[in-house]
Every structure is written in C-alpha cells, then in structure tokens.
Design brief:
This protein is mainly β. The chain is built from no helices and nine strands. The chain has one domain (about 5-120): Rieske Iron-sulfur Protein (3-layer Sandwich), CATH 2.102.10. Bound molecules: FE2/S2 (inorganic) cluster.
Length: about 130
Amino acid sequence: MSSHVTTERVVALPLADLPPGTSTTVKAFGTTVAVFNVEGRVFAVGNNCPHHGGPLWHGRISGTCLPSRPHEYRYGREGRVLTCPWHGWEFDVESGRALFDPSVRAKVYEARVEHGQIVLTRRRSRRPS
Ligand code: FES
C-alpha cells in the first residue's frame, strides 16, 4: 500500500526577531512550536516535552557529558542538546531523540531561513483512504 506525503510550510517570524542564543514560541501546525537560534542555526521543536509536557522553549541548549570511563569526564555536542526545564531530560535538538533512549522523541520540524524569515516545514505521511 502506498502513502502520500504532504508538506505544510509556515513563515514563523523574522530571523531578526530571534537573535543567536534566544528562543521563542510560535503557533504553527495547530500547536505551539519552540524555535531556537543556536549561533545562527535555527531549530524548531514541539513545545511540549514528551515526558510530562514541560515547556521546551524554556529549555537550555548546551552540550552534555559523553560516555566515558569511571573518573573521566568528557563534554561534547555543544549547541546540540536541549534540556527540558522541568526534569532535565536531554534531547538532540535536531532529531528530537532523547539521549537516554532514542525511541523517545520530541516532535521536531524542519526550520530554515529564507529571505530573512524563519520558515517551518512539516511533512506528514498519509495512507490513501
Ligand atoms: S516534563 Fe520534560 S523532562 Fe519531565
């Protein structure tokens, strides 16, 4: 059985309104989407954390401790990890996958800058009825 892929695009806000290091929320696709500017790269994540619905736009984007041997601390993935402000779950900001279990995901949307505007895209697969 084949499926159809639909694409929806939303012009979210001007890039000038979201300086590097800041985040905001926009209404798009019938929900609230958290939008982040990380050193000029933009990311969009569904605002509700998959754990208990914490507001991800209040989350911090940083790095995390990488797997290492006992008594060894390695830090990495700077600018790629979104930490939920409520209980500290960590997500890859690009894929939405939780670092502790990749099967747990925050919803993510494609985000890009076009002509100075941040544009969000949602792709959905649908089976024909
Ligand atoms: S609500 Fe996000 S970690 Fe609990």
